[in-house]
Write a structure and sequence with these properties.
Layout (H helix, E strand, L loop, with lengths): L4 H11 L11 H6 L4 E3 L3 E9 L2 H9 L9 H13 L10 E9 H7 L6 E4 L20 E3 L7 E4 L2 H26 L9 H4 L8 E9 H11 L6 H17 L1 H12 L6 H11 L6 H4 L3 H10 L2
Antiparallel strand pairs: 1-2, 2-3, 3-7, 4-7, 5-6
Bound molecules: flavin-adenine dinucleotide.
Enzyme class: transferase
Cofactor: FAD
Protein name: Flavin-dependent thymidylate synthase
């Protein structure tokens, strides 16, 4: 578990002091509030705060005075309509703030999502912990031979051991040097902001990350996807489970239209029409490139 007993005690205390509120409360999200969900070997994900629920989306779409409609089926229909037609602003009325502990190389991918507010742990101010991401044996894969951005077969035996030894030794040696540079007996020690520069990218950092539901769905569509790197995907998948409990109607619509659905080009629609009319269409006669055709055919497999 990536938490110290003191950190767990702080979380327990926060959860032990509920307050009454007039604000919209999502029962599903209340169960997650402050709880640390472990991710990777030392990482975590937890909800620090949130605003809104499914009704808040409906309420914003209708600009109503109360809490949306009484009938859940009406709310569900409207939310599905909004999702289907890319009416995104009602989803922006819901917000969530996460505390994430993640390896630096994952943080570099994550930070590319610009539509969020971020506060990162300062390694100029504080000393980083000796915590490095070391892949589990089943994630220690070779370079893919078919996808330049992916993994192939899992390494095994001597090769796997050699790689693990290198990862561990390099991390520990770098950290020893980091500590050594920060404080040397009888000497001033190097500034924290400089000593950190030779730490490897698998060291853990932490941040608070706040975004709205529309942009969170965008993040999840890209990062919970099979093409995303495993190490960021596991965070996205943990978020999906939380969001499903927070806004079940909105998440179900997202799962259906975005995660499970596909977007077809005009050419793809033409090919479908021609096929439905009984014509045999190939990549050469489709007007699509080889890559487009491969993806198009992949949808139906
Ligand atoms: C599988 C995968 C592989 C990738 N590979 C690479 C890679 O090799 N190299 C690389 O550099 N990146 C790579 N990326 C990162 C990718 O190119 C995007 O930068 C990242 O996914 C963030 O997406 P975004 O800009 O849509 O998201 P966000 O920054 O969250 O923005 C959300 C949406 O807001 C709008 N928006 C935000 N800011 C602006 C703006 N300033 N101007 C106009 N519109 C804006 C856009 O509509 C955008 O889609 C990869 C991402 C994935 C998922």
């Amino acid at each position: 578990m990536p938490l110290t007993p003191e950190q767990q005690a702080e979380i327990d205390e926060a959860r032990a002091t509920p307050r009454q509120t007039l604000r919209a409360v999502s029962e599903g999200m209340e169960r997650h509030l402050y709880v640390a969900h472990p991710v990777l070997d030392h990482g975590l994900l937890r909800v620090i705060d949130y605003m809104g629920d499914d009704s808040a989306i409906v309420q914003a779409a209708r600009v109503s005075y109360g809490r949306g409609t009484k009938a859940v089926s009406n709310d569900e229909g409207l939310i599905r309509y909004l999702m289907r037609h890319w009416h995104s602003t009602p989803f922006e009325m819901c917000e969530v703030k996460f505390h994430v502990k993640l390896p630096v190389f994952v943080a570099r991918q994550w930070i590319r999502h610009r539509t969020a507010n971020v506060n990162e742990y300062s390694a100029r101010y504080s000393i980083l912990d000796r915590e490095f991401y070391i892949p589990a044996p089943e994630q220690l894969a070779a370079q893919s031979t078919v996808n330049n951005q992916g993994r192939g077969a899992v390494l095994s035996g001597e090769e796997a051991q050699r790689v693990l030894d290198i990862l561990r030794d390099d991390a520990m040696r770098s950290y020893d040097h980091y500590e050594g540079m920060l404080s040397q007996e009888g000497q001033q020690g190097l500034a924290r902001e400089l000593a950190r520069m030779n730490l490897p990218a698998n060291i853990y950092t932490q941040w608070y990350w706040k975004t709205d539901l529309h942009n969170l769905f965008h993040f999840l569509r890209l990062r919970a996807d099979a093409h995303a790197q495993y190490e960021i995907r596991v965070y996205a998948e943990a978020m999906c489970r939380i969001v499903a409990d927070w806004v079940p109607l909105a998440y179900a619509a997202f799962e259906d239209y975005r995660l499970g659905g596909v977007s077809l080009s005009g050419k793809a629609v033409e090919v479908l029409k021609r096929r439905l009319a009984g014509e045999t269409v190939t990549q050469e006669t489709s007007g699509m490139s080889k890559g487009e055709w491969r993806e198009f055919e992949g949808v139906w497999r």
